[in-house]
Structures
1.
Amino acid sequence: MTDTKPSSFQNGSKAKAPILRALAGLPNDKPPFWFMRQAGRYLPEYRKLRKQARDFLDLCYTPELATEVTLQPLRRYPIDAAILFADILLVPDGLGQEVAFEEGRGPVLNPVTNVSGIDALSLDGLHEKMAPVYETVRRVRGSLAGDKVLIGFAGAPWTVATYMVEGGTSKDHLAVRRWAFGDPEGFNRLIELLIEATSQYLIRQIEAGVQVVQIFDTWAGALAEPGFRRWSMEPTARIVETVKAAHPEVPIIGFPRGAGSLYRDYIDATGVDGVSIDSAVSVSWAAANLQPRALVQGNLDPAALAEGGGKLLEEAGRIVAGLDQGRFIFNLGHGIVPSTPPEHVDQLCRFLDG
Ligand code: CP3
């Protein structure tokens, strides 16, 4: 073929998927949608299946169970995408750090606090450890209809580093921010390792069958502007460059949560095809400043979904009205919270599908 159109235009079945159309800048009759954390504890069928696994990591590393959990929300709702069931903390696990998910406590890691801690980690076992994840990708992709897409993902180096250094979820990220200020060269070795691991991991996910990838930088908003440019934008740009060199046709969505007005520079500096915006970003500002540069995904407050009713529809309507004139995928500003009644997700789907 001699033309230069992206390959999603050349493949008839791919071009039909509304999410790929949106990311290619093509119009849709209605906004395509999926929800961050669409698989998870708010679903009774998830809670049931979760008991069959020893723990959360075991669930992620058992293709039979992870495939089923990935597909659960699609059996209930007319959503346009499946997101691989895994976690951003599989990468530190694959690099050899001790990672555990404790009931009611969240992730617990043996913290990396200095350069010798980084030296104890290695890329050598990563793909062997991630083999069950790639197998889940193959299985899910094999059972998805042509109009649905499978989204793969990884954490951005900064966000993954926060967990690796703090030893879990932290309120203030003080240890990792101090390291980044106090010993930027040492800290950069951790970031470099994560750039390499994340690029390879995403490339393997694509080769196993994911059609879009999302890079979650959940704690990007903890950084001041120079740090945001250095530790969020630069590493993400490197990952985008490496993944695109191998697979230029696969769209990449970035989620630098809390980036505020720096979302615009993030798009320009990283070369992502889309950005997921948190609920604090103004819809009119995003339409004027972000949509000319990239697709925008977002940005319903997960609390509105948990609450349901008229306020949910009012909020969803406001977002659709403000963003559906441009490149747009409807989503939340962050993940579905466990207290969300599944019927409220039904209500939202009926509104978006209507
Ligand atoms: O449906 C999906 O979104 C796909 C799967 C997915 C999970 N985690 C499953 C999960 C995805 C995309 C993630 C990403 C993730 N993991 C992020 C980035 C997005 C975000 O939410 O900000 C982060 C920061 C993590 C790290 C993580 N994983 C934490 C802090 C926790 C504990 C807190 C919590 O929400 O439970 C997890 C556990 C986790 N990851 C669960 C699920 C469904 C709950 C596990 C359980 O069953 O107890």
2.
Amino acid sequence: MRVARTIAELRAGRAAFPRLGLVPTMGFLHAGHMSLVRRARAECGAVAVSIFVNPTQFAPTEDLSRYPRDMPRDLALLEDAGVDLVFAPEPAEIYPPGHASRIEVGPVSEPLEGARRPGHFAGVATVVAKLFNIVTPTRAYFGQKDAQQVAVIRRMARDLDMPLEVVVGDTVREPDGLALSSRNVHLSEEDRAAAPALFRALDRARRLHDGGERDAEALRRAMLATLASEPRVETDYVSVAHPVTLRELDRVDAGALLSMAARVGRTRLIDNVVVGEAPPR
Ligand code: AMP
């Protein structure tokens, strides 16, 4: 496994692989990341993982300094998984003095997380575009856990004719339904016990949908009621939206993205499930 700290080192290592899967991460790796790594390796034959806590996707009020990090552990996990190339740059390598360009992806980045985290998706789109240009992967792997991020990156890759395939892996969960997240490490014991309320709410709405409920507001109410039954959970939003445009729906006639954000203690968690028809690729 080659660990590149600079763009030049990465490019020198990349030349050995005709096909390469890329898994972009912010590190503090868990089984969700590793499922993407395994899939990338199986499908592409070689895999690169980037570890970069991207400062431009955190608002000034957000938890950049609190974001968990453990590079030695991450590198050991990636080595064990047979990863070929790791790209772990310092911020100055990615944003040298004078760096000014930013990618705005448009309406799909505006609602939901985009509305609560101003500038977040411009930060994500810009760093992902840079990673695509640096690594030039055949395929890039993202988790459904961050559903709006997937929608934004698909839109960007299509709009800007980026020569790669975007692949999405299922959300990996704890046995009680909690979606794995690097931020789960911040949950106290009580918070951890309360956190599965997010998935319970999504699962309840999914069962209502699968039982024939098509009124989006009824699904939102069901999610809100489940979240409200857990006193440690403070709901930020619940959404029933079109799976590609992310516009809120009145009725769920084809597929929908059910999603939510909530604070559990000091930690903000997001989660989602897709119901009905799978969104077009
Ligand atoms: P992050 O390090 O949080 O930026 O995540 C890196 C990649 O892993 C993103 O594409 C995430 O969507 C994905 N990911 C994070 N958590 C999970 C999970 N529980 N299951 C599957 N993929 C995940």
